[in-house]
């Protein structure tokens, strides 16, 4: 034990040591720096449309975001750097005073490339220090572009003075859906109606045109109006509102007509009793006759069939009106005061050896007309046009009596008034003048696009073969004139557009065109002067870029490429279409995965460009490749199994591939930099302002209330398999006179060649397939009525005048369903070739597309193929699963046509 003295010494020494240690520890503590902010994380870019789209935003002013924290809880300032991968340019955006741990957001201002591929990163700082930069986050821009191709414009006779159609093109680089908003004004720019007045959706770059028919009594003949269109994706709209004005034409006077009277010798008559049990408990035969017999009651009630021999009508005559005069009745002058003759259209062909009851049940319930017995006259409306269209298979007219208990006869000899039909018509003449033609100059060539004549001049020939070729205008004669009006080239063209090559750059030319028919040649219409010009740097790289882009998209669907970057690096011109491919690669890969989940696949694609023109615009700083792509795609269901089946689809795509040029490629300067594909636009988008449009897919609020989707029992789960073939379907296949299988065959065979009469031709095409392929009869009635279904019958062809049900999908569905003309398939096992397919949009729950089943190789969505017209494009055997993969459609109804 230490002595007390030593203890005190040790304790004193320890105290000194401890004190020194405390000093040593305390001094450095005052020199330690505060920790810097953490590196930002959770980088995001908005707005993004869906998970399938990947990091693709639909705004050219996207919002960038990031989150960082500060150890000391200080507020943070953020710096965002935005890198344009195509140019290497970097832009900087800052956000100040963001609380620690909260998200910092900044909106990109100014113009950025659309489409474009970008990266951004973020760094956070407080008053003392800065964090490290975050990793780069990549995204692509796919924003709506400014509208184009607005019609009507200026003063044109192709405006329907009753209900003008406003139409324009909206798009974005990916080709995915874009909404068009319409704004209507009077001549002084005072708004008319709500804002927007109406809106509709362009479903893709292959169907980019949006058209809205103005309601009744909104506009007046001879007045001038202005209208605007704006392109939007959800709440993001392009800032450009494109404006046009138009003057509504006054309805032209009816031309001078001629008259022909068809006597009883031109009428074919048959009579029978209409009751099902009139002859010993069975139906009585319908026997040929020389007179019309009607009246009677119960089992003695009579019915007559009247058919007209239209061959006395001059060839090509256009019927203006048709009236049936039954003449003096046998009851005259003491006919029942309230007795009348009732005429019904016969809806379908009668069976062999028909009965009177067959005639009754084959007649439409709504009468064509009704007239008192003592002066029986029936206005046939458009029925005579239908008989003129199909003289060999015309169904005729069923005649019955009302309030006439005793039989009455018409058509006896030696009566004061004989039976006859009076036809008022316009004689056939040469086609009218083509209303408009445009010219687009290219490198050593030009594109000509024109509208059909305002007056076709004649009725289509009735005995054409095949039926799809029943056309008045046989072709168009197009001439190229030089500066001195010498004819440089003459070509004959079936369609409304053509590319002429072999012209000289830097020389001026004009087009002129006229329509030709069996009844003569129309007047010439001339284009503006155009001057072909060389493309800076040559055409080949744009042609290569176009072809490589098309096959890269198909390669993503076919598994040739893992992702967009893989495709870009695998193609020499990949950098030119990198941004455009990035905008849609996510959806293409999602489609591939959708098919793979059901053992279905797109196997291979071959494409051959034709009628190609490359044009340079120094004003827009663009190069545009116009081409028609003819190709085939092989699809497989049961892929990789012993049950695999393959189907080859033939398709055609006509349109423009537009490349934006870097500033260094102005005409006359040295070539440098990299061009960039902006978008593909279907020809209807590029040319539609010339050819016009009336396929309606945009609506006012009130019009939209009339739209509808598929009803109860009109569809089945799309992800189902198999199912039973019901007794109802078995009965349906035995019931009607329609050749349903031939509907599908006709659709597949004629999709490549049948004329696209509307910019969005899907419903018009299926109506033709049902009529020409299946033999379904046209139904007369008011053009706007859902009970009618007929093709253009107007004398003055200043605009399309098909019935709404012929060319608009919602009206078509209402007609065929409402008139009982279809059986709705209840499972995939019931789906058959020739079925009509009605597609219901998922978001709006309305019908937006129609097609025809052309092949069935399996009892699920992966074994159904369809033919369609879509813009100026077509498919012969497109797989259902590819149509469903986008998620745009919630239901598809399959309808078997009965009559």
From TrEMBL:
One of its GO terms (biological process) is polysaccharide catabolic process. This is Fibronectin type-III domain-containing protein. Pfam families: Amidase_6 (PF12671). The keyword Signal applies. It comes from Actinomadura spongiicola. Residues 430-537 form the Fibronectin type-III domain. Transmembrane segments: none annotated. SUPFAM superfamilies: Fibronectin type III. Residues 1-33 form the signal peptide. InterPro entries: Amidase_6, FN3_dom, FN3_sf, Ig-like_fold. GO terms for molecular function: hydrolase activity, acting on glycosyl bonds. Keywords: Carbohydrate metabolism, Glycosidase, Hydrolase, Polysaccharide degradation, Signal.
